[in-house]
Amino acid sequence: MDIDWIEVPGGLCAFGDEARPRTVATLLWTRTPITFAQLTGDHRGQDGLHPATGLTHTQAADYARGLGGRLPSSVEWEWMAGGIERRRWPWGEDAWSPELANLRDSSHGATTPVDAHPGGATPQGLVDVAGNVWEWTVRVTMGNGVVLRGGSYASPPLYAQTTFLNAAPAELASPGIGFRVVRKP
Questions:
Q1: Domain total for the chain?
Q2: How many other CB atoms are found less than 10 A from the CB of residue 1?
Q3: By CB distance 3.0 to 4.6 Å, which of 31, 62, 69, 157 could disulfide with 183?
Q4: What DSSP state is assigned to residue 66?
Q5: pLDDT tens for residues 161-170?
Q6: Residue 155, SS3?
């Protein structure tokens, strides 16, 4: 499966709940979280279209470099997800519903193919920004933690809002954490 890159124009991100101004460069983003097929080249079976999970932060960062990019910063992720409008959700202001993102109350109980929720796309066409898997960023926290964004299939909808931050130990390899790659245009 080839990687589909989408350009997200840069700008001034009103970051976090305090809306702190942060400049974000124009970047190319992977349209979806990276899938098992994109990592292995094995396109057989439905699992190939599921997000690649079970990777530590270091492994995800290494794969991102191998794919020609890097993991995004937390600010870059929030800018991609919420845009200049500071959308509450990647798709806009409409409340979450199961057809928009794979979250706890979707009844899936596991990851779904990355193209299963096209209605939840950002205006630029990035999908699975909310739900399915948390996404690693490069932002490190105290105690060897790393900021995660987006929520997963086990998360309540609140966790998938564009300004919500979570963190996990860098060495955690979870079935609910994946990654997306960014690079310069």
A1: 1
A2: 17
A3: 69
A4: H
A5: 999 999 999 9
A6: coil
